[in-house]
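Limitations

Structures in this collection are predictions, not experimental determinations, and the ligand pose is part of the prediction. Treat each record accordingly. The example that follows, with 5U1 as the small molecule, is included so readers can see exactly what is and is not provided: the inputs are given verbatim, and the output is the predicted complex.
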Amino acid sequence: MLEFSEAQQRHAELVGKINHANYCYYALDNPQIPDAEYDRLLRELQSLEQIFPDLISPVSPSQRVGHAALKSFAQVQHLMPMLSLDNAFSADDLLAFDKRVRDRLKTADDIQYCCEPKYDGIAVSLLYENGVLVRGATRGDGATGEDITQNVRTIKSIPLQLMGAEFPQLLEVRGEIYMSKRGFAALNQQARANNEKLFVNPRNAAAGSLRQLDSSLTAARPLSMCAYSVGVVEGGTIPSEHFALLQQLKAWGFAISSEVRLAADVAACIAYYDAMGRGRDSLPFDIDGIVFKVNSLELQEQLGFISRAPRWAIAFKFPAQEEITRLNAVEFQVGRTGAITPVARLEPVFVGGVTVSNATLHNRDEIARLGVGIGDRVIVRRAGDVIPQIVAVLTEDRPTDIQPIVFPTCCPVCQAPIEIEEEGSVARCTGGINCAAQVKEAIKHFASRQALDVEGLGDKLVEQLVDAKLINDVADVFALQLPALIALERMGQKSAENLLAAIEKSKTTTLPRFLFALGIRGVGQATANSLAQHFGNLDALGMASSEELQAIPDVGPVVATFIVEFFARDATAELLRRLDEVGVQWPNITPKPLDQLPLAGQTWVLTGTLSLLTREAAKARLQQLGAKVAGSVSAKTHWVVAGESAGSKLAKAVELNIPVLDEQGLLNELEKYA
Ligand code: 5U1
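Predicted complex:
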């Protein structure tokens, strides 16, 4: 237990840190700590104040939201305070919230909640007088915000005039302004091309865009708004339930989340949270949690507010996707095609639900752009299955002993010179098949699940086999013998026999898999499939000219050159001869022009979990039939296949009236062309 004087000191420290973070985040749009760190500081402050209530003062960050507005925009007084939300970080927190609600309402009945994604953007208030937008304001400190009317007027999803006629004379609509992931990527791509500073994340980009004094700059930014509640309502009525209120807002012309659902009880809220958590990464915008609101406005009224937050709502946060850590070292990895990738070795940090100790630094340009050095404190981001990235360097209080990152001129594995490719920032080892790193990566790729699928021949074993000089290229895999395998560390008789059986089995494959396995630069699964369908056999492909290759969709002049060069090499001819000699084989395909394939011209989207066949198998089969398999649903999608727990993509398909098949429906469809 802390002494009061110690608590006082820590409290002052926390107040300083939070105030400073608020200033950087809200006033300067230049966050210096990730949200999770901020939440942690605030929670520590709140629990200190709970133990020592004497520490609470009107200036404590626990007593207000945000930071005072900048002077450069006119200040506006909110007609009703703009509150923030209490957070839940676990299902237990949510259950405790539900219990508090029921206790306060003195009911044992289930409470109906409205569930909405919590957009990671900027909260705004929009004031409508007789249906006309008269003022847009930021939240500021909750009581006073900044007048951003000119800026919000440029955002197309915000109606300037309400639709219909039955709206209150004075209506304040609240919601979140945000930037889509795609809009953010495009903005940063443009900034990169212009050698400008990049935004750290979509939220930061939306904040920066909204706070432009010149509203024509805001107009050029891809901002959107999602409405989620109302403030002042005078001279008219609104529905008596929150869900219906959102539908009413939609009818008045606002964008609301397409993911809004009603939950009959708290258990349904948890199920919604879990489903959205799984679908989070495939949403077109960032969300950082789910907001649950008591659906009845009458009950909301009864519950009221406590300090800065309503008692009738809570934000159940998702695991943070950004954290701070230290860059300890940089290593340079050599890929299958010799590309050199700088990899950051980090002080291990828990982010995006896992412990991360490595992050990609992409290339030399990225290192220069970040201005990062060894020893720096960095923000690392891990969203979904995407490789962790360093998104920013914390420049404040930078240590004085930062070491520069020196890009090597020779391959760290084979010492061959590194070549910088003319266009772009790719550095490549020139060692080719003499580089052990490239050899290892080529074999790993050849044996991988989407290629020859040699069960048991994982990355570690490939490295062991190359290091032990038992294999030096992909064809050597088929010459492996039992005694040599058993002699390896951690390899028992049974495992070795299983591996040899798997290698034998992998000899019978398909042409698309074999082409993909060869690891030709620029030839991914889809291109390998198109090549196989078009040429039908390896000899025809090997003799194809660049022009013939470019007739295939997906194959541009660069990839065509890679393919021609690959087949022109003596080493390729020798490798193919050896693979043929050991018995690697596949049935040839009767070539069919791609536009005559049964699903040619169709775009399919796979979503949710498939249980009868793997996602890759479904995708490959659809591609073989000529379909394009896309990652997101749009008006151009022809079919959506929805497996177990399908989320936002399924909802989008329903909204756009796109036909949806379940997994069995897909199998029936594929069966027609078997
Ligand atoms: N979806 C949603 N986000 N969000 C944020 N609803 C919602 N409600 C909020 C906030 C701050 O506040 C309520 C108190 C209206």
